[in-house]
Specification:
Elements: H1 2-15, H2 23-34, E1 37-38, E2 45-46, H3 56-67, E3 70-73, H4 80-90, H5 92-95, E4 102-106, H6 111-123, E5 128-131, H7 142-151, E6 154-157, H8 159-167, E7 176-182, H9 192-206, E8 214-219, H10 231-245, E9 248-250, H11 255-259, E10 266-272, H12 279-302, H13 307-330, H14 333-345, H15 358-373, H16 388-393, H17 399-413, E11 421-424, H18 428-441, E12 450-453, H19 465-477, E13 482-485, E14 500-503, H20 510-517, E15 526-532, H21 536-546, H22 548-560, H23 571-574, E16 576-578, E17 585-587, H24 591-600, E18 613-615, E19 620-622, E20 632-633, H25 641-655, H26 666-678, E21 685-690, E22 695-696, E23 704-716, E24 726-730, H27 736-739, E25 742-747, E26 750-764, H28 766-785, H29 788-796, E27 805-806, E28 808-814, E29 821-822, H30 824-827, E30 844-846, E31 849-851, E32 860-864, E33 870-878, E34 886-888, E35 894-896, H31 897-905, E36 917-921, E37 944-947, E38 952-956, H32 961-967, H33 970-993, H34 1001-1007, H35 1020-1041, H36 1047-1058, H37 1060-1069, E39 1099-1103, E40 1106-1115, H38 1118-1148, H39 1167-1170, H40 1173-1180, ...
Parallel strand pairs: 3-8, 3-9, 4-6, 4-7, 5-6, 7-8, 10-15, 11-13, 11-14, 12-13, 14-15
Antiparallel strand pairs: 1-2, 16-17, 18-19, 19-20, 21-40, 22-27, 23-24, 23-26, 24-28, 25-26, 28-29, 30-31, 32-33, 32-38, 33-36, 34-35, 36-37, 39-40, 41-42, 42-43
Length: 1417
């Protein structure tokens, strides 16, 4: 204890070098700080953790803050934040993770979040998090906030965020150990500070809960409002703040204590004469501006604008007019002109299609600019401020502005170059135009630079938070000398070098006065108070503000010794709805905002934003039609009636699950889950499976049994060599389906049909197995690699070893059909030295030594050249020629073979008299799996060659060229067979789960083959079909299960089922990735069975009791696995129907069914009074059992009449999916031979909103839409004007050059949904009803690609470059410019018109596409 006291005394002594203090008093205080103090939790002890440079009053305040809730009232710049930081340091041991507790530091403005957070980081080692609205925290859920509180120890945020978190019970008040409120004088009325204390702190305090945070408030003025003349009014305001904050006020006994440490600015009154611009001039200009206003308002009334557009435009005109009148009167003509110019540069963006009033508003402001300019001097040399006195006399500037200029120039004349001045104004427009004035005028006298900072305001120069922070930083660095600011800068800005503050407009409150004065932090700073001469009221008020500090200090000291009054909240907080499971709360204060939050997450479109409607006369709350609640009628206090109704709505929404237990819209949680699911880590490295039928270990038995399958080849082409059949011998018997399969391989000369026939078993000895493996490895290595070195390595390692390997045999056959047997004579050719001829002695010299003529008759030979290259040939006989025979070479020159080899290859023939061998080039192995015929390959200039025997090394003999030619097809054939086995094993995995769900293996193979494989088939068509069925199956189940959920929520739930992330996860858990084929076949990478020279190694896995063999890994993106799942759904659907597809989906883990669930509908609607039922039923060729479904299908969200129970959005959700499925199914069945990808294009051209919208107009359905939107009415009218122009040429929506109302397409879908529900989910009834509306349906002949896709593909194919693509939308007009460079020629097109950006893009792409096509012609 004594050591601690001595340490603090030393620290105190060090501080005394900066200022003299009362040492005895300080020692007394140090003793107090060293004592153990019980915390307000009565559980743990808090020890002061002070900073060595802390001042005496800061230590005093800290001591008080540790003992009890405290409001520190000290002048600006006195270091209140440092006290808060020391308080956090003292509580640090409670906060350090993994502690569940946190401290919260609240600041009233976003700009202060980073400033205070950085201060805490600088002076503590606590982990600090920062939060403000633009981060999207309004839509964070409990899980996100849990992560933040587990990560950070101090959370710095704006108070609305904490209030929101507490109301939704994302975290509890008892988690907060210290709650710091900066600028706590805001705690009044409905401010979040007040709500936090009222709704939570006092509620728990009154409930007897002791685990409450330590409250620490900071303010430079405990009074925010205007106060009366009596000291009692000051006392009452301080008392109210203390009671609300449940805190005592701490302040210094006298101002002298503070002045030892911080400078204060000197207040000075600056008076200006009350002469604005001349009355006559003002009246004249005001009259002209008013006339312009009336003219443009008349234009709005007489033009064809919607009501909402006209009202919005009129409000902006009125607002601009009054802003200009204010500037004219208060600032003068020149600044009024600058205000008009500022307003005119603002961009007016609108979603509309050219029928908003933005242009009229802009024309009004431009007319005002022109009028005001007429009152300026025309002299080009003239500039404002050349003669300020003259400018004032002419009314260009007012005497108030002149007073401001004089005040600034006075500093300039003193030679003070490094000025930091803040000019406080009341209005944003004043800040904007004064910046223009000072940047125009001051450069005549100095180099000062001016910028403005103001809050957000539509119609003026909006500033982002980052922009404001940048300006403040420039001010600190001296790059900006003057800031013209609204009250946004009164609080918290800490610039030590600020030496000049001017109140251009007087402070409205004592708090504003004190805080703006406190911005001047430098010694000898000035605080100029501009007051109009003779305005005694303002002067008296400001003088009272000057003396306010002493009064507030006196009252604060008096109250600090008194206990806090008991808090009595008003009715807003007494009536509340609490969720027992979480503690989330809704009360009369929060209920309205909560209902608006709920409505903001309901589905919306460009014609209707869902909001609640309050009928004050009847006390009834009407919620949007997408909300399942009926109108809510309440009675009671008229003042609170709307709040009561909204609170009741909150209760009901929570009871039906539309609000979660945290009282947030359910869709927020659903969306968070979808996002979290999509962000789950995913490893793209997936295994590649090898069919288990082809994998085994070497047998140790004396004989090994193989199952023999004859691969019968049918040669569908003419060639001088016949293809010979080949035996496939496997250790494991193949399933009969695979063992009798047949398929076709296409290549350059035609096609080769392959058919497997089971021929029984064969027993082979180890030597025979070794011989067979050596044979196939040798033949296939020479065909694939053409390399003698690799051949030797492969042959040497082709031994029997107990390793997992690709184990099957490929043996040449002799004989046809039933008489086919293994050609062992050919197999033995792999050991040519074992072949001996009994008829001829060896007399021909070769690289292999002396051989007889028979050995060279049919042999595979290798010749090596001095260059090191090896060439393989197949000999066919002995010629009558020798080395001295004549040879005609290119150019007609005649030489001998001997000379040719010497001149061209540098080879000296030693046995020139030996007869030459006739040979043909070795065959080339290609990929025959792609299903496309090769281009006719270039035949060698000489199909046969003549070889000197002495150059030949005999590799195999005797072996026919037809056998080697047949083996050149083997890699592609076996790749196809391996693929079929993989597909069969996928099918077998499913059949083990559901034995009755049979399917063709070839369909499964199609479903697991990606486009990247470059084969004759891939999964795109099946994926398109499966996608549409999955979407429908999920939609109908969700529609029936969640009968109160709106379309937006149903869509999110559907996304959870059908998203790529979800399907990929299910596919992986089902073991599908290993079977997916995603790489084109390359013979060079094919594993030759029995070959041990490669680096591959098989790995054995046991999955659900079944052995799976993995060859290696490759990368598979999520989407590919998801696509394969959809393609397999499509495969089962196309083969076995919907039941088969549902069974497969169930196996994968997609739990949907077509079970009938009762659909509760108790709507008493007189349909005939709302719609023309007979006409609609005749158009649809369907009679409704429940006509309320027909009404619902036609009711837009804007049609909020009580008799309409729901809008069409739920039925649209269902109808969209059933139409997508029915159209896709129709196209798939009608055109079974279509190429992969064509179905996707045909589906895209048919299943789109534009196509549906045209159909709705064509059949007159647009006349029957129930809506109350003038924007929609206008859009339909514009569309009808263009209908005749485009209807004859339009093809499935792509040709339209107008943006069609989405609502019209929606009702086709909602009608389909209504018929589906009404018919008991009879798909055929829906198709028979809706199909005639969509006729003519697309066919392969009428299909047109979307111009955007077509142009992109053309540019990619021809390597054209898009060198410019710019789009903008302004005043309801879209401008789209595009240029494409094609073979050096630029093809430009520019669109300017009312179409929306997407439609404009389609138009531009189509025009450039036509231009490119015309050029090609």
């Amino acid at each position: 204890m004594h050591a601690l006291q001595n340490k603090r005394k030393r620290e105190s002594a060090e501080r005394s070098t900066d200022s003299e203090v009362d040492q005895r008093g300080k020692e007394t205080m140090e003793e107090a700080l060293s004592m153990e103090i019980d915390t307000h939790t009565k559980q743990q002890e808090i020890t002061c953790d002070v900073l060595p440079f802390a001042r005496s009053y800061q230590l005093e305040a800290l001591d008080k803050a540790i003992r009890e809730n405290t409001i520190v009232y000290l002048e600006t710049g006195s270091g209140k934040t440092l006290i808060a930081i020391m308080l956090l340091r003292s509580y640090a041991h409670h906060l350090r993770k993994p502690s569940p507790f946190i401290a919260v530091f609240l600041v009233p403005q976003v700009v202060l979040v980073s400033q205070q957070a950085e201060a805490v980081k600088m002076h503590t080692n606590l982990k600090v998090g920062m939060y403000w609205g633009d981060m999207g925290v309004d839509y964070w859920d409990a899980a996100t906030w849990k992560q933040e509180t587990e990560k950070y120890e101090v959370l710095v945020m704006t108070p609305a965020i904490l209030l929101n978190c507490l109301r939704h019970s994302f975290f509890k008040l008892n988690m907060i150990k210290v709650l710091i409120m900066d600028e706590c004088h805001h705690a009044r009325g409905k401010h979040p500070y007040a709500c936090i204390m009222t709704e939570f702190y006092h509620h728990q305090l009154n409930s007897g809960i002791s685990e409450l945070p330590r409250i620490f408030g900071m303010t430079a003025s405990p009074i925010k409002s205007k106060v009366g003349n009596s000291e009692s009014s000051w006392s009452d305001n301080i008392r109210k703040l203390m009671t609300l904050m449940h805190s005592k006020v701490y302040t210094c006994v006298s101002e002298a204590v503070i002045k030892e440490f911080i400078p204060t600015s000197t207040p000075k009154f600056k008076f200006y004469r009350d002469n604005g611009i001349q009355f006559v001039l003002f009246e004249e200009l005001a009259s002209k501006l008013k006339m312009l206003k009336e003219q443009h308002e008349f234009t709005l009334r007489s033009s064809d604008f919607t009501k909402s557009a006209a009202e919005s435009a009129q409000k902006r005109i009125t607002k601009s007019f009054f802003a200009l009148i204010f500037c004219l009167d208060e600032l003068g003509v020149w600044l009024a002109l600058k205000a008009a110019e500022s307003l005119s540069t603002n961009e007016f963006d609108s979603f509309s299609w050219g029928h908003s009033g933005d242009r009229v508003v802009k024309n009004f402001i431009l007319a005002c600019v022109h009028t005001l300019k007429g009152y300026l001097r025309c002299d080009p040399e003239w500039s404002i401020g050349d003669n300020i006195k003259s400018d004032v006399e002419l009314g260009l500037l007012t005497s108030k502005v002149c007073c401001l200029i004089d005040s600034l120039l006075e500093y300039s004349y003193r030679g003070l170059t490094d000025i930091r001045c803040i000019i406080f104004v009341e209005r944003i427009i004043t800040a904007v135009v004064l910046q223009d004035l000072l940047n125009t005028l001051l450069p005549k006298y100095n180099s000062w630079k001016t910028k403005f900072i103001a809050g957000q305001n539509c119609g003026l120069q909006n500033q982002s938070r980052r922009k404001q922070n940048d300006i403040v930083e420039e001010f600190r660095m001296g790059l900006v000398n003057i800031i013209v600011a609204t009250s946004i800068l009164e609080e918290g800005l800490d610039v030590q070098s600020c030496n000049f503050v001017i109140r251009f407009d007087p402070s409205p409150t004592v708090c504003s006065f004190i805080q703006s004065r406190g911005r001047a932090r430098k010694q000898n700073s000035d605080y100029i108070l501009m007051v109009k001469s003779g305005d005694s009221v303002t002067r008296s008020r400001l003088e009272k503000y000057l003396s306010s500090a002493d009064i507030m200090r006196k009252e604060s000291l008096r109250h600090s010794s008194l206990p806090c009054d008991p808090f009595e909240g008003d009715e807003y907080y007494k009536e509340a709805y609490r969720v027992a499971s979480t503690g989330a709360i809704a009360n009369l204060s929060s209920s309205i905002s909560l209902i608006y939050l709920y409505c903001s997450r309901l589905p919306a479109d460009g014609y209707f934003k869902p909001t609640p409607r309050w009928d004050e006369e009847t006390g009834t709350l009407y919620l949007p039609k997408s909300c399942p609640l009926q109108p809510i009628h309440v009675e009671g206090n008229k003042k609170l009636l709307k709040n009561i109704a909204c609170l009741e709505a909150c209760k009901q929404l929570h009871n039906i699950g539309a609000l979660t237990d945290n009282l947030v819209p359910d869709i927020v949680i659903e969306e968070a889950e979808v996002e979290e699911f999509g962000n789950e880590p995913y490893d793209e490295n997936k295994p590649t499976y090898v069919p288990f039928e082809f994998v085994n270990r070497a047998s140790n038995n004396s004989h090994t049994m193989y199952h023999c399958y004859l691969m019968e080849f049918n040669q569908n082409f003419i060639y001088d060599i016949s293809v010979q059949d080949i035996f496939l011998a496997t250790r494991i018997e193949l399933d009969p389906e695979i063992g009798s399969t047949q398929f076709e391989m296409n290549f350059d000369r035609g096609s080769l049909s392959v058919k497997l026939r089971y021929k029984g078993t064969i027993n082979l000895s180890p030597d025979q197995v070794l011989l067979c493996k050596k044979f196939q490895v040798t033949v296939l290595r020479i065909l694939i690699e053409n390399n003698m070195d690799k051949l030797a390595t492969g042959a040497d390692k082709c031994y029997l070893k107990d390793d997992l390997e690709i184990d099957y045999l490929l043996l040449p056959a002799i004989g046809k059909g039933e008489k086919s047997v293994v050609n062992w004579f050919a197999v033995n050719s792999v050991n040519p030295y074992n072949f001996t001829c009994k008829r001829h002695p060896p007399h021909i010299m070769t690289k292999s030594g002396l051989v007889c003529i028979c050995k060279l008759q049919d042999a595979l030979v290798c010749t090596s050249h001095p260059s090191g290259k090896n060439y393989f040939y197949i000999t066919t006989g002995i010629m009558e020629l020798d080395g001295n025979s004549s040879l005609e070479v290119r150019g007609g020159e005649v030489t001998t073979y001997k000379k040719y080899y010497e001149q061209h290859h540098g080879i000296q023939l030693e046995f020139e008299h030996q007869q030459l061998v006739k040979a043909r080039h070795n065959f080339q192995v290609k990929n025959y799996c792609h299903g496309l015929k090769h281009g006719k390959e270039r035949e060698a200039s000489r199909a046969f060659v003549e070889l000197p025997p002495e150059l030949c090394f005999i590799v195999m003999s005797p072996i026919k060229d037809s056998i080697i030619y047949s083996f050149s097809f083997i890699p592609s054939i076996m790749h196809r067979l391996e693929s079929l086995l993989g597909a069969f094993n996928v099918k077998k995995m499913h059949l083990d789960h559901c034995a009755q769900n049979e399917i063709e293996t070839i369909k499964v193979l199609e479903a697991i083959t990606t486009k990247r494989c470059n084969e004759a088939f891939h999964y795109e068509s099946l994926e398109t079909l499966g996608d549409s069925f999955l979407k429908y199956a999920a939609s109908q189940q969700l529609f029936k299960t969640y009968q109160n959920h709106h379309e937006g929520l149903l869509s999110v739930k559907r996304e959870k089922i059908i998203s790529n992330a979800s399907l990929c996860k299910l596919g992986c858990s089902s073991g599908l990735p290993g079977f997916i084929r995603n790489e084109p076949f390359h013979p060079n990478t094919w594993i030759i069975p029995g070959d041990k020279s490669g680096s591959y190694k098989l790995k054995e896995l046991d999955t659900n009791g079944k052995k799976i063999y993995v060859r290696g890994e490759r990368k598979l993106k999520r989407k590919i696995i998801a696509d394969v799942v959809e393609a397999l759904i499509g495969a089962f659907l196309s083969t076995g129907g919907e039941k088969a597809a549902l069974l497969f989906m169930d196996w994968v883990g997609i739990k949907v069914s077509f079970n009938k669930i009762p659909y509760e509908r108790q709507f008493d609607i007189q349909s005939e009074k709302l719609i023309h039922v007979s006409f609609l039923e005749s158009q649809l060729k369907y009679s409704f059992h429940d006509r309320s479904l027909l009404v619902e299908a036609l009711a837009h969200g804007s049609y909020m009449l009580p008799e309409i129970p729901r809008c069409y959005q739920r039925l649209e959700f269902l109808g969209d999916s059933i139409l997508d499925y029915l159209i896709t199914r129709h196209l798939y069945k009608k055109y079974p031979g279509m190429s992969p990808g064509l179905l996707t294009d045909m589906r895209s051209s048919s299943v789109n909103n534009d196509c549906y919208a045209w159909s709705a107009i064509k059949h007159g359905l647009h006349k029957h839409v129930l809506h109350a939107s003038q924007e929609l009415h206008k859009h339909i009218a514009v569309t009808l004007d263009n209908f005749d122009k485009f209807s004859s040429s339009s093809t499935f929506g792509y040709e339209s050059e107008t943006s069609l109302p989405k609502v019209l397409g929606d009702i086709i879908e909602s009608l389909a949904g209504a018929i589906l529900v009404d018919s008991g989910y009879n798909e055929e009834v829906v198709w028979e009803s809706i199909r005639p509306l969509l006729e003519p349906l697309v066919t392969p002949e009428t299909l047109k690609l979307h111009p955007i896709r077509e142009l992109n593909e053309l540019c990619q194919k021809r390597r054209y470059n898009i060198i410019q693509e710019d789009v903008s939308r302004k005043d309801g007009v879209t401008n789209y410019i595009m240029k494409v460079e094609a073979d050096g020629v630029i093809h430009p097109y520019e669109y300017t018109g009312p179409a929306l950006k997407d439609t404009a893009k389609k138009i531009v792409y189509k025009k450039i596409l036509n231009s490119l096509k015309e050029r090609e012609l």
